[in-house]
């Protein structure tokens, strides 16, 4: 029976970290400067990373990272979370593992003080994410990277998806329509 694991990255078991890195390298080798050794960080430690995984008999079936930061200033500040590195082991795809991890990640945001979630995906995956409540926001593209070196997702053919979890988050998403959401995610980084 597959088991759902939800923990801060610091407490994510080393063997599951190794498998998540191995699968990430298979899927996105261009994101690595060298094959991972297995003990590297999966997420930016500055962004309160949480790992959500579906595991069966020690085998990582599906995984996603959730990272969070503060967005805005003063009274308007919002806690924002994003999904990153979502994947399912190739042989296990199409069996609902990804959906289970995605639903758990969204529920984690809902109960952890996240005002709204936002991240990007390739256009064919919009329907997969929509089933867990994520809505395409074509007039509010996510811009990652840094202030000095922005990473504008729309220019790379990515679609931005968002979901509000609190009234404050809902108000902010309405207010922000027609403008990009610029998050400091680090050079070359995007959710
Ligand atoms: C996207 C992914 C995580 C889905 O995991 P999964 O365990 O197969 O997901 P589920 O079985 O719960 O759901 C699969 C659904 O997503 C759809 N889907 C998955 N990948 C798709 C793709 N590339 N194009 C179109 N639809 C896709 C399937 O058609 C299926 O829909 P159905 O239920 O109507 O048949 C998995 O395909 C994957 O790891 N892909 C490679 C990495 C990747 O692209 N990650 C997303 C980064 S934003």
Question: Would you write up a description of this structure?
Answer:
- This protein has 191 residues and is α+β, with helices and mostly antiparallel strands.
- It has one domain (3-182): Aminopeptidase, CATH 3.40.630.30.
- The chain has helices at 14-27, 97-111, 126-130, 167-175, and strands at residues 3-8, 50-56, 59-71, 78-88, 116-121, 135-136, 142-145, 150-152, 159-164, 181-182.
- The strands form two sheets. It has a seven-stranded mixed β-sheet with strand order 1-2-3-4-5-9-6, with helices on both faces. Strands 8-7-10 form a three-stranded mixed β-sheet, with no helix packed on it.
- Helix 2 (97-111) links the parallel strand 4 (78-88) and strand 5 (116-121).
- The relative contact order is 0.15.
- The model has no long low-confidence stretch (mean pLDDT 96).
- The chain binds coenzyme A.
- The site of coenzyme A has 16 residues, from strand 4 and helix 2.
- Residues 27, 62, 86-88, 93-99, 121, 124-125, 128 line the site of coenzyme A (COA).
């Amino acid at each position: 029976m597959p088991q759902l694991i939800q923990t801060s990255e610091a407490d994510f078991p080393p063997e599951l970290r190794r498998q998540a890195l191995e699968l990430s390298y298979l899927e996105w080798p261009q994101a690595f400067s060298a094959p991972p050794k297995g003990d590297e960080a999966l997420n930016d430690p500055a962004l309160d990373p949480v790992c959500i995984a579906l595991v069966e008999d020690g085998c990582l079936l599906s995984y996603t990272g959730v990272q969070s930061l503060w967005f805005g200033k003063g009274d308007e500040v919002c806690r924002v979370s994003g999904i990153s590195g979502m994947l399912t082991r190739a042989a296990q795809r199409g069996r609902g593992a990804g959906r289970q991890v995605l639903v758990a990640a969204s529920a984690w945001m809902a109960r952890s003080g996240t005002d709204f979630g936002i991240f990007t995906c390739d256009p064919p995956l919009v329907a997969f994410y929509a089933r867990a409540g994520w809505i395409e926001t074509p007039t509010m593209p996510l811009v990652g990277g840094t202030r000095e070196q922005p990473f504008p997702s729309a220019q790379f053919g990515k679609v931005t998806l968002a979901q509000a979890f609190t009234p404050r988050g809902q108000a902010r998403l309405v207010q922000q329509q027609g403008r990009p959401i610029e998050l400091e995610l680090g050079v070359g980084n995007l959710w």
